[in-house]
Amino acid sequence: MADPELLLDSSIRVWVVLPIVFITFFVGVLRHYVTQLLHSDKKVALEQVSDSQVLLRSRVLRENGKFLPRQSFNMRKHYFNNAEAGFFKKVKRKVVPKNPMTDPSMVMDMMKGNLTNVLPMILVGGWINWVFSGFVITKVPFPLTLRFKPMLQRGIELLSLDASWVSSASWYFLNVFGLRSMYGLILGQDNAADQSRVMQDQMSGAAMAMPPDPNKAFKSEWEALEVVNHKWALENVEEDLMSRDLNFESSS
Amino acid sequence: MASVSELYDVGWEEMRDKLRKWREDNSRNSEQIVDVGEELISDHASKLGDDVWIIYEQVMIAALDCSRDDLALTCLQELRKQFPDSHRVKRLTGMRLEALERYDEANKHYDAILEDDPTNTAARKRKISILKAQGKNGEAIRELNEYLEQFVGDQEAWHELSELYINEHDYGKAAFCLEELMMTNPHNHLYCEQYAEVKYTQGGLENLELSRKYFSQALRLNNRNMRALFGLYMSASHIAASPKVSAKVKKDNIKYAAWAANQINRAYKVSHKPRPSDTGTHIATVKESANTNCCILGRGRPSTNVGFSIADADM
């Protein structure tokens, strides 16, 4: 027999479920604007810009080198890869490993990130838990095991209550993640209210615009360029072209 | 003078949208921009909201092109009031000084920007264009080379350098710059064609062969590029006419040249479609079109005007 269905007071819906949604949403929007205010421009070093463009050029050479005459391609490949004087062999950048603790800009960034994202989440979550305590809000549509009870049913000490019934704190967390797409609609893409993206950023942090170790990038680019062979795309271009009459109709 | 909105019966939103389109296309129709933009800012500035600043910038640069110093100064002053410390506005100040030929002051402005922000590409490029305006081609080339060493990816700069080299008749280096452009934009038929023309001008059997190949490539990318078609014809016939080539090469090139000539004739016919019932005038029109030497040019040319002649190159 299925568990008896609980009938919840409909005022729970009006006074708890909806307010939590609104609170989460507005706190998110607020976070977005606060982040924009605190945002500081990152200054890029000339060398970094230059290096990233050089790497881009080398990659383009690998991909589109077949459109250049053989000699030009070899000249450029030589420029990059020559054993003594090639760019990737000769240029070694001084790598200063950025110690996260002492580097002031990174410390500031971390602090700002914590302030605008983690702190509000904890504060609001705790407040909601305190205000809306002592009753269940909603039932999740899938069955959960008993292990989830202490997590999702804060403040309700009922041993026999099905673990699918959850309290307000879990509804709050559901909202935090669920409203991401709403933020995208209203604030436009790339907004600072998107917490999960921030968490992703923190994890992949070092892989930003330019890897902090250009030497490694140079080495991998050198290897990639070594193996490329020049197969001229224009070998048979005349035959291809003259196989049919030219099309003079306007195409655009 | 009737205002633009009266002449063309457009509202201010359409004018604003037109300006945005020109901004995105990077079209340099400065007189039109000045006409439309001037009216927009004088009559409808409040309705534009935050768009007004970018329109100020656009109109100011157009005004400098048309020698409208008064308008340029007004725009600049508005921008300076709103963004007092901006590098972008400083660059505009420098541009105005350039237009007034006060090159030393302009240089000082750009140096100040670069001191503050060494990665600012706009200021560097303006300094190089000052050198070009003063006619110091050699120095401009040198500075541009240094700039490109740092910023290898700047395609505008590569194109500018190729034009400077062509003016100095240093075709080998110009070819190198165009190769960079072809590499990054393999599907742009104009770069292929320009490269082919430079190779043709350099002369020599090998270069002529290369030029023929690249003319064909340009044609393959865009069938309507008449210049490339003519180039193909010229290069093929020159190779065929050269005494040093083998018989097979000669035969091949004669075939290519004949095909190209055939296509050119077809193109003339296509451009003047005769009325179906009137075959008499058809012959007359074809003769006339052959005489008037009209060309069905492909897409618009890029900004450089490669002014060398496709005359008889040395063999």
From TrEMBL, chain A:
A cellular component annotation (GO) from this entry: EMC complex
PANTHER family from the UniProt entry: ER MEMBRANE PROTEIN COMPLEX SUBUNIT 3 (PTHR13116)
Subcellular localization, as worded in the UniProt entry: Membrane
Name of the encoding gene: Nfu_g_1_015541
Matches recorded under InterPro entries: EMC3, EMC3/TMCO1
Membrane topology value: Multi-pass membrane protein
Protein name: ER membrane protein complex subunit 3
SMART domains: DUF106
Primary location recorded for the protein, binned into one broad class: membrane
Organism: Nothobranchius furzeri (Turquoise killifish)
Oligomeric and partner information: Component of the ER membrane protein complex (EMC).
Family the entry assigns: Belongs to the EMC3 family.
TrEMBL record, chain B:
PANTHER family per the UniProt record, alphabetical: TETRATRICOPEPTIDE REPEAT PROTEIN (PTHR12760)
Chief site of localization: endoplasmic reticulum
Domain of life: Eukaryota
UniProt gene name: EMC2
Endpoints of the signal sequence: none
Keywords on record: Endoplasmic reticulum, Membrane, Repeat, TPR repeat
Organism of provenance: Nothobranchius furzeri
Family: Belongs to the EMC2 family.
Self-association and partners: Component of the ER membrane protein complex (EMC).
Cellular component annotations (GO), alphabetically ordered: EMC complex
Official protein name in the record: ER membrane protein complex subunit 2
